[in-house]
Fold these 2 entries.
Entry 1:
Amino acid sequence: MKKLLLPLIPLLLLTACDDNSLCKAKADCEVFCRAYDLNTIMFDCQDNACKCISKDALACTGTAEDKCDTICATYQPETKGVCAEGYCECQARECSANTDCDAKCPDAAMTACNDGICSCIQASELSCEGSGISSACAAICDIYRPNSTAICQNNTCECQSNDCKSDADCEVSCQAIGAVMSVCQNDKCQCLSRETLACTGDDAAARCSKICDKFKPGALAICTDGLCTCQEL
């Protein structure tokens, strides 16, 4: 910015003598910025002063969204900064909730509103191999259903909600990933695997008591057939 400001000092001083401001609205800066740098494609009026940015300053690589977001927040607020074809672009925000994207993606299996931009995924893109927890499905669920349990079931990725009101709400999703005990704690499902509940040796009783105290306070802790169980009293 120092490079930009030095040639403008005389003009700024003359303007200050006139009305103590260089601009009153964004449109006032278009001629000013283009006269200084023919490459200028983004500008704004802030605190009665014009802010200009050149095309070179908009260069980006990959998905440099942090840089683009910062630029767009300054020059075009209420937009989302994206890196497209090597330059930052400020795209209008399309949504504020997932349902806002239904019209844009009428045939999509799932839609998501991510920071104002709609994402859509087709049913064919949800195919997976194996069963149970899947890293491929997790990548999808992180975008479309954050904080859900990502599983591959019937060769299709599913994002099962972790929200619950009772232990019964968690049984299906926990069983789908091979858990042998399901608990609703703080309105979120906790799925306990065989490995977590395994109990052997002299410390079996203490281990089971620790698990039950954490997940089912007040229940009777018992080690049966190598697994901890928490039986209601």
Entry 2:
Amino acid sequence: MSAPNDTQPDQKQIVASLAAQCHVPVCDMELLYEHERVALALGAHNTKFLHIFAIRNVLEAFRKRDMDKPSLRMA
């Protein structure tokens, strides 16, 4: 019986995907993603799924940022 695959996902691929999705430079996204991962890792007992929560936090930050921008639509 084989052991489960415990390898972490490719962070460069995650960062590149998030950067494309959020329309920001990869270097900026790399800093934000790593900041979120480190913040989550500080109190984590299990670090296997940190990347999932870091992705969620990054996307939420961009969603909030977009909601805070004034709308360009005319009322």
